[in-house]
Design brief:
The chain is of the alpha/beta class. It has a domain of about 170 residues: TIM Barrel, CATH 3.20.20. The chain contains 10 helices and 9 strands. Strands 1-2-4-5-6-7-8-9 form an 8-stranded parallel barrel, surrounded by 6 helices. α3 runs parallel beside α4 and α4 packs across α5. About 45% of the residues are buried.
Length: about 250
């Protein structure tokens, strides 16, 4: 199986998160307006087993509430304001569910769903996301990624037709993920590299193996231009506008 999405692609990291609160419908809608190719979003489970779209283990940084996501019900999470921390313009934005995202965006754009159940890799998140994907019937427009091989392996076992993106930590912490061992742990179609780890040799090796290279999180025009010159397949950025400008000039 290959991932034939074209290249280079612009991934809107947590939506257009330079311009709207991350992982909200406002950020995703803005990413569409800014012509991002892919919406990247984070998922985990609420206390009552709903798939919600949020990055952190707690709600403290991105909402007006406090507490661990895994200890809050969907009703409690939906009562929180996930927008005003960014700007009063977005006051009242809610934490979305993955079901909402699929209802609005499945078929409109590519989706990169990150499994962020890093502290609970054996929970039901991979199973529930697999169920959503099967129901939406948009399998060719979805990529599932994670830093953790266990959730990815569990998801791959359930839906082997869906491409996998393996995220590698920066520097020494990601050496194993970037090596042949990483591909042995999980048969991925794309490796997602921290921008400082990208090299021409690594990209050449990945391409020779039929793998794509996507790099994160890149918000500087100069860095984007350098990475494009190395032939990366995707730029994961908070600011799709800048990425479009750089790719257009490149």
């Amino acid at each position: 199986m290959s991932l034939s999405w074209g290249s280079p692609l612009i991934f809107a990291h947590r939506g257009a998160s330079a311009h709207a609160p991350e992982n909200t419908l406002a950020a995703f809608e803005l990413a569409i307006q800014q012509n991002a190719d892919v919406i990247e979003l984070d998922t985990k489970l609420s206390a009552d087993g709903h798939v919600v779209v949020i990055h952190d283990q707690s709600v403290d940084r991105t909402t007006n509430g406090s507490g661990r996501v895994s200890e809050l019900t969907l009703v409690s999470l939906r009562e929180l304001d996930a927008g005003s921390h960014f700007s009063d313009t977005f006051r009242g934005e809610q934490i979305p569910t993955l079901e909402e995202v699929f209802e609005i965006y499945a078929g409109r754009t590519f989706l990169n769903i990150e499994l962020t159940n890093y502290r609970t890799p054996f929970d039901a998140l991979p199973m529930k996301i697999a169920q959503f994907i099967e129901l939406c019937d948009q399998e060719t427009q979805i990529l599932v990624s994670s830093f953790h091989p266990i959730p990815l392996r569990r998801f791959h076992h359930l839906l082997p037709s869906i491409p996998i993106g393996f995220l590698a930590k920066r520097g020494a912490a990601g050496v194993i993920s970037r090596s042949w061992i990483g591909n042995a742990l999980i048969p991925y179609q794309a490796i997602h590299l921290e921008k400082s780890d990208v090299s021409s040799a690594l990209i050449t090796k990945a391409h020779q193996s039929g793998k794509r290279v996507h790099t994160f999180t890149v918000n500087s025009a100069d860095e984007m231009a350098k990475l494009l010159s190395l032939n990366v397949d995707g730029i994961i950025t908070d600011d799709p506008i800048i990425a479009h400008q750089v790719i257009g000039a490149y």
